[in-house]
TrEMBL record:
<dbReference type="GO" id="GO:0008830">
    <property type="term" value="F:dTDP-4-dehydrorhamnose 3,5-epimerase activity"/>
</dbReference>
<feature type="active site" description="Proton acceptor">
    <location>
        <position position="63"/>
    </location>
</feature>
<comment type="similarity">
    <text>Belongs to the dTDP-4-dehydrorhamnose 3,5-epimerase family.</text>
</comment>
<feature type="site" description="Participates in a stacking interaction with the thymidine ring of dTDP-4-oxo-6-deoxyglucose">
    <location>
        <position position="139"/>
    </location>
</feature>
<dbReference type="GO" id="GO:0005829">
    <property type="term" value="C:cytosol"/>
</dbReference>
<comment type="subunit">
    <text>Homodimer.</text>
</comment>
<dbReference type="GO" id="GO:0000271">
    <property type="term" value="P:polysaccharide biosynthetic process"/>
</dbReference>
<dbReference type="InterPro" id="IPR000888">
    <property type="entry name" value="RmlC-like"/>
</dbReference>
<comment type="pathway">
    <text>Carbohydrate biosynthesis; dTDP-L-rhamnose biosynthesis.</text>
</comment>
<dbReference type="InterPro" id="IPR011051">
    <property type="entry name" value="RmlC_Cupin_sf"/>
</dbReference>
<feature type="active site" description="Proton donor">
    <location>
        <position position="133"/>
    </location>
</feature>
<comment type="function">
    <text>Catalyzes the epimerization of the C3' and C5'positions of dTDP-6-deoxy-D-xylo-4-hexulose, forming dTDP-6-deoxy-L-lyxo-4-hexulose.</text>
</comment>
<dbReference type="Pfam" id="PF00908">
    <property type="entry name" value="dTDP_sugar_isom"/>
</dbReference>
<keyword id="KW-0413">Isomerase</keyword>
<dbReference type="GO" id="GO:0019305">
    <property type="term" value="P:dTDP-rhamnose biosynthetic process"/>
</dbReference>
<protein>
    <recommendedName>
        <fullName>dTDP-4-dehydrorhamnose 3,5-epimerase</fullName>
        <ecNumber>5.1.3.13</ecNumber>
    </recommendedName>
</protein>
<dbReference type="InterPro" id="IPR014710">
    <property type="entry name" value="RmlC-like_jellyroll"/>
</dbReference>
Length: 186
């Protein structure tokens, strides 16, 4: 049975599927709707995404989509490991501007459920890390948005120094949270 653990921001959930192993390896159900339903998560996923990062220290994020194409994500490392982060960007939330993070590895199989109203990002901890994630809305370019990965007001403790982080040109110039008019509210 899958176990679910609410993090310091309780809307973000660490998911640990049960692995059944023997000398050959293991088998697990990475997603089983009835387990999620039983925990009270009724998200319906519509798309699977995959990203490969060749180097340690690749930072992707902090990304999200705006309504009506906001996305909840179920994220896992299929190969390698990441430090995965969710930032609450919901106006009126007691945890607005706060972040939670978890290390997700292929070796252990953890997953992070990032709900609507959160910016998401990760940093690779191993070379050739493959990240796969389910989303509950399709990609909508006009609704693609982000905030600055190292916004000092948020204060994420990334496992890579700013000067060593490998970023896309887009992620280098995202706005700070205080300069972004978030469309999310509680």
């Amino acid at each position: 049975m899958t176990t679910f653990t609410r993090l310091a921001i309780p809307d973000v959930v660490l998911v640990q599927p049960k692995r059944h192993g023997d000398e050959r390896g293991y088998f697990c159900e990475t997603y089983k709707k009835s387990d999620f339903d039983a925990f009270g998560i009724d998200t319906v996923f519509v798309q699977d995404n995959e990203s490969l990062s060749r180097h340690v220290g690749v930072v992707r994020g902090l990304h999200f989509q705006t309504p009506p194409f906001a996305q909840a994500k179920l994220v896992r490392a299929a190969r390698g490991a990441i430090f995965d982060v969710a930032v609450d960007i919901r106006k009126g939330s007691p945890s607005f501007g706060q972040w939670v993070g978890a290390t997700l590895s292929a070796a252990r199989g953890e997953q992070l459920l990032v709900p609507h109203g959160f910016a998401h990002g990760f940093c690779t901890l191993e070379p050739d890390t493959l990240v796969v994630y389910k989303v509950d809305a399709p990609y909508a370019p006009a609704n693609d948005a982000g905030i600055l990965w190292d916004d000092p007001a948020i204060g994420i403790t990334w496992p890579v120094a700013a000067e060593a982080a490998i970023l896309s040109a887009k992620d280098r110039v995202q706005p700070r949270l205080q300069d972004y008019a978030t469309p999310f509210a509680l």
